[in-house]
Write a structure and sequence with these properties.
The chain is about 15% helix and about 45% strand. It is built from eight helices and 25 strands. The protein has a 16-stranded antiparallel sheet, with no helix packed on it. Strands 1-3-2 form a three-stranded mixed sheet, covered by helices on one side. It has a three-stranded mixed sheet with strand order 4-6-5, with no helix packed on it. The chain starts with a helix and ends with a strand.
Length: about 575
């Protein structure tokens, strides 16, 4: 009898163990997680901390689902503490139905713990540094405001970053403490910093073999004894790379090599290949297909002189231009150039053959690029029933201003250009004239996915008679970047036979609204108005239409359908243009 009882107990025990093992290895359906009561960053952090949420897409055993659900409450309360919630309550449930397992967590975060004490102090040379003052003045944790531990950690990281960028390499936290008093339910913040002394730039050694040291020194704005700045080193690196002389710029300013808080700087420069070749293709309804090829010798000598030659060919223009350029004063922006060019242009309004020789000096004045020029201009032209030839010696000045986040695709920016030139019949030129032209374009964002674009162009020429003006110096309107709905250079004053011969004045304006659709695609509506006129009181043409945009690496491809609404039958015209925004 005892033997039978022992056998029965052993059987039940084995069956129980087997049942437990089987239940532990039963694979369950995937788990759905529901979190209610919190939003935004706290909710994101809770989900990131929930092990059950991280493994919800895996095949889990029933036993593991239950274990992870049991530890979820602890994970949730811990995940809420960085946001000041130290009295959170969590109601949890785990259910199973025909759709699988559902884990629900309803959270009452409670009142966030307030900050009672904020004690932030800075000692050392950084005490009066404006960059540190900005961080302290904008310290995100304020008295009686809820505690957010991430703000505290982010501020510490920001202080360390500023210290490294501005040469406080001995900076340390003498006290970094965040006390949590759960009994009185408040937090105390203590952040004491000793920046130590600020390091300076020491001897600057540049290793290169192609430029005169005197020229190279004009690229370098940092000097021994200046306070260390990572931004200044990066700016120098970008300037040297942009010079076209160097393909690689290695900067070494190691604080471990400093002596008496003075860091030696070594700049190693690798020369670019001396020859640069370019080739490009394009298309526009104004120009038809166009091709461009160029060659540049980046450096001819140790003084940084360089030469360039460009050839253009399109449906309306064939040209060749050569130039010899010398860096002067500030070689980043200033140069003296000597150019020569020949071009033939054929449009529906004029045929021209132009020869030019020019000398120009370009230099930067703040945000404005200024170019002074003297151009010898010889032109033969046919326009309407007129045939003529002209020789001009034109001094000129051009100011160009650009501001924006980027030129290729601009969310917010502007460009303005003012060009003045003239000639006198008392010195070399056939006629006397004074011509001015002002162009501007402004781009502003509208919300997160739209842009508003405004552009304008105004030109004026003073001379005795319009027919004396060479065709290339006359104003015309119509085309992809003028008044859309009209053919390129097809609008302007006409002769007695109705041929468009161009005018002495120009007035063009445009407004455009662009809406992003998806990916790199956008749609636009626009309204253009303007004309080339001899008197500003003359009537203006109007055009309006719609377009699509596709953002390419080199600029937007714009396809517009515009109506010439000033014409009786309001004809439609297709315009295609590729290029940067500014």
């Amino acid at each position: 009898m005892l033997h039978l009882q022992q056998q029965s107990f052993a059987t039940r025990l084995a069956a129980g163990i087997l049942l437990f093992l089987l239940s532990s290895t039963v694979w369950a359906d995937k788990v759905t997680i529901s979190v209610e009561g919190i939003t935004d960053e706290p909710r994101d952090n809770v989900l990131a901390s929930l092990t059950l949420h991280q493994e919800r897409e895996r095949e889990l055993s029933v036993a593991r689902i239950r274990r992870l659900h049991e530890q979820a409450v602890s994970e949730i309360t811990t995940a809420l503490q960085p946001f000041g919630y130290y009295r959170a309550r969590v109601e949890s449930s785990l259910e199973h139905d025909e759709n699988g397992w559902i884990a629900r967590y309803r959270i009452e975060p409670g009142r966030p713990i307030p900050v009672k004490t904020v004690d932030v102090q800075i000692d050392g040379d950084g005490r009066t540094d404006p960059e540190f003052e900005i961080i302290i003045d904008n310290f995100p944790l304020q008295l009686n405001e809820p505690l957010n531990q991430r703000d505290y950690d982010d501020t510490k990281h920001e202080l360390q970053t500023v210290a490294a960028e501005r040469g406080y390499f001995d900076m340390r936290f003498t006290r970094s403490e965040m006390r949590i008093d759960l009994a009185d339910y408040h937090a105390d913040i203590y952040l004491h910093i000793d920046t130590g002394g600020r390091y300076r730039f020491g001897e600057i050694n540049v290793e290169q073999q192609i430029l005169n040291p005197e020229l190279l020194q004009r690229y370098i704005r940092i000097q021994p004894g200046d306070y260390y700045s990572a931004e200044a080193l990066l700016e120098l690196q970008q300037a040297l790379l942009s010079s076209e002389y160097f393909s690689d710029v290695e900067m070494n300013a190691d604080p471990l090599l400093a002596k008496d808080h003075s860091i030696p700087v070594t700049v190693h420069l690798t020369a670019r290949r001396p020859d640069k070749y370019t080739f490009g293709l394009g298309y526009g309804t104004d120009t038809d297909a166009r091709v461009q090829a160029g060659w540049e010798r980046r450096y001819l000598n140790a003084d940084g002189h360089h030469v360039r030659a460009d050839v253009h060919n399109s449906g309306i223009e064939r040209s060749i231009t050569t130039g010899y350029f010398i860096p002067i004063r500030n070689p980043r922006t200033d140069q003296l150039g000597f150019t020569a060019g020949y071009s033939e242009n054929t449009t529906r309004t004029a045929d021209t053959e132009i020869r030019q020789l020019a000398v120009n000096r370009t230099n930067a004045r703040g945000h404005v690029l200024e170019t002074l020029s003297l151009t010898y201009h010889n032109e033969k032209f046919e326009i309407g029933d007129e045939t003529g030839a002209s020789t001009l010696l034109m001094p000129g000045i051009n100011w160009t201003y650009f501001w924006g986040d980027e030129r290729v695709f601009t969310r917010r920016g502007a460009r303005a250009t003012l060009d003045l030139r003239g000639a006198s019949s008392h010195f070399v030129s056939d006629i006397s004239l004074l011509q001015s032209r002002l162009g501007a374009k402004i781009i502003r964002p509208v919300g997160d996915s739209s842009r508003f674009i405004v552009r304008g162009d105004v030109g004026h020429t003073r001379l005795a008679a319009t027919h004396e003006l060479p065709a290339s110096l006359r104003f015309f309107s119509g085309g992809d970047v003028s008044v859309r709905g009209y053919a390129y250079n097809s609008r302007g004053p006409t002769d007695d036979n109705g041929n468009v011969v161009g005018g002495r004045n120009l007035l063009v304006g445009s407004v455009e609204y662009e809406q992003h659709i998806t990916g790199k695609w956008a749609a636009a509506v626009f309204y253009d108005v303007g004309n080339a006129v001899n008197n500003f009181s003359d009537p203006l043409d109007k055009g309006a239409g719609i377009g699509v945009r596709w953002r390419s690496p080199i600029g937007q491809i714009r396809v517009d359908v515009a109506s010439a609404i000033s014409e009786p039958d309001k004809p439609l015209r297709l315009h295609i243009y590729l290029g940067p925004d500014l």
